[in-house]
Write a structure and sequence with these properties.
alpha+beta, two-stranded antiparallel sheet, 8 helices, 6 strands, binds flavin mononucleotide
Length: 223
């Protein structure tokens, strides 16, 4: 039986007056609304400490039963990035030329994506997010984690926001299938590759597709 944790006052909570709340929430929207996924990266280096702060920020995410079922592999090594590019392109080639449902091919066509992934070796960092399905206990038993996808999704959202806030661009990339990442990055089978966050500066000639976001009236219902 797990014992209950000791409780303490929530001293770090901060309250703002209404005007300040409005200003903060609007400024936050403006900041997030200028985030775009980039598919062409510069090889300009990025200070590793910035990445470390962003990964630590991701680790503040809430998680089912506080299991924190995530692990982030920050890849900076050029050989490892090239290996990931090679394996991802092989998988993607097979996917685009066979396994991909036509509906998927049609859905990504407007974005201009294909099986070529030069950004995987151009960008200074690939942050590979792993979802920990269960924990291996010292007793050799497996302890199941709870709400793994939800928890890792939230942590990844915080990571994307933190990198954006720091002045970096990202691409959420999901080669299909991604199992090869366990082997290349030597992660245990208890962990499932969740996605790759390509991270760096946009290339000088990077462009983004014109797309629209749902307006408030469409994205939310207030009852
Ligand atoms: C779970 C997930 C997987 C994605 N996988 C890919 C991908 O493999 N390749 C790609 O080019 N974009 C990928 N994207 C990026 C989306 O296409 C992009 O977020 C969407 O078009 C909206 O554009 P924005 O990020 O600029 O707002 C992915 C996004 C998410 C959330």
């Amino acid at each position: 039986m797990e014992t209950q944790l000791p409780q303490r006052p929530y001293a770090e909570f901060m309250e703002f007056d209404v005007q300040e709340m409005l200003a903060r929430s609007q400024a936050n929207f403006t900041e997030l609304n200028r985030r775009r996924s980039v598919r062409k990266f510069s090889d300009r280096p990025v200070d590793r400490q910035v990445i470390q702060w962003c990964v630590q920020s991701a680790g503040t995410a809430p998680s089912g039963a506080n299991r924190q079922p995530w692990h982030f592999v920050v890849v900076q090594d050029q050989n490892v990035k090239q290996r990931i590019q090679q394996l991802a392109e092989e998988e993607e080639y097979a996917f685009y030329h066979g396994a991909a449902p036509e509906t998927w091919v049609n859905a990504v066509r407007p974005l201009g994506t294909d099986e070529h992934k030069p950004f995987l070796s151009a960008a200074p960092y690939l942050i590979v997010v792993f979802a920990e399905r269960y924990q291996e206990l010292a007793s050799n038993e497996q302890q199941k984690n709870y709400y793994v996808s939800e928890s890792v999704g939230i942590a990844t959202g915080l990571l994307i926001q933190s990198l954006h806030h720091a002045g970096l661009a990202t691409l959420t990339h999901t080669p299909s299938p991604m199992k090869f990442l366990n082997q290349v990055l030597q992660r245990p089978s208890s962990e499932r590759p969740y996605l790759i966050l390509v991270t760096g500066y946009p290339a000088a000639d990077a462009t983004v597709p014109e797309l629209t976001r749902k307006p408030l009236a469409e994205l939310a219902t207030f009852v």
